[in-house]
Amino acid sequence: MKLFSTIGRRKIPAHKKESLAREPFVLDINKVTHVYFPLVAGNNAACDPLVKVGDKVKVGTRIAFRQQFSVPLFSSVSGTVSAIEKRMNVITGRPCDHVVIENDFKMEHDALLEKVNLDAPKEHIVEAIKEAGIVGLGGAGFPTWLKYNNVKGIHTVLINAVECEPYLTTDYTLSKLNATKIVEGARYLQKAAEAKELVIAIKVKKEAARDALIEASKEYSDIKVVEVPDRSPMGWEATLIYELYKKRYNRLPSEVGIVVNNSTTAMSVYEALVEGKVITQRLITVSGNVVKNPTNVYVPVGTLAEVVLNEFEIDEEKEFSLLPGGPMTSNPARDASFALQTNHGGLTLLEKVKFRTIPCLRCGKCTANCPAGLQPVEIMRAFDARDYVRLEKLETLRCVDCGLCSYVCPSNIELTDLMKKSKTILRVHQAGKK
Questions:
Q1: d(CA 39, CA 99)
Q2: What is the pLDDT, as a whole number, of residue 4?
Q3: Enclosing domain of residue 248
Q4: Distances (CA, A) of 359 to 234, 235, 365, 409, 413
Q5: What pLDDT shows up at residue 7?
Q6: Distance in angstroms (rounded) separating the CA atoms of residues 254 and 100
Q7: Can you tell me whether residue 304 is helix, strand or coil?
Q8: 267: part of which helix (H) or strand (E)?
Q9: Position 149 in a domain
């Protein structure tokens, strides 16, 4: 089935007003006694520790390095490396070694990064982004520098501030509060791509953030702020590009002359190249129908989820699931003892609802609504049969985990979970063949 031959998007209740009703706050650093950094990245690539137990570190000290794609990790506090211990990594779904740093609460900072002017050669800008360890902060965590390394034929850099995942409001909040940083950081990305046009996309009815971005970019004739429909998964770059340009591509947006980056990523580029700061804290949304005071909170990277949740009033009379992200794309965590990583955007707590699953009705809704043009029910059957040839023919790996197939299924089949499992066993099978 061809990409975008389906409906591919759907209106979903946003539940964003709840966390926007309160001002964001900064987590008291004195409550963060330790921070934890997994030594396995989200794509299961290993990270080599650069420190050992007993070493002293500062805020911004390099503590690990991922050889694949050359991504450094930085300490978010000053203190002492107290252990290398196993802990659940919720992004990979399995335990792995973590570097543990005991906070000395002094927050002493390491040397700043070398600052870069906008008139620097594009290769210098890309190298600076690489040294800063900036990854996609919209959830994917893909190394930003790779999108601009030796890229050619790019006419547009598209900044994605859509944030279509229900409950999460970090991109919206930062667009409203730090619009100038987002615009100026995006200009560095535009220079790195040698693109003539810079477009910032934001969802309709987000007037405060939209107006802030327009004001911040008013001096630049080559920057446009555009609104897109409130449909899911509009935040997926393929859906967004088709909405704005009616163009399709096979693997990468660069095939149609476009590079896409998240708005918070653009802000981080500014902070790294202009202010010399690496990513040591994240704004995350804590929300859900059992959270009585949902809002956004700035936390040091590596903070345990349980430490953050202690700052919120939770209706403990209700049984709930903890999602390390939004409800459409993330799987429930076993508990709150996991560390928040750079590309975590939220913690969503939802009351558990029990559904009765019935056999597939073969209604075709999952296929009709898949934004990637896949056939989830057929992939489910191939998964049950462990038919790897069929899984490959069905292009299972193109699934983007948007959650729409489960959302629309009248039989209440957890198709999204089955799609994730299908991708996992197919990757393992393909790796075994190699």
A1: 7
A2: 43
A3: 122-273
A4: 30, 31, 14, 11, 8
A5: 66
A6: 38
A7: strand
A8: helix 263-273
A9: yes
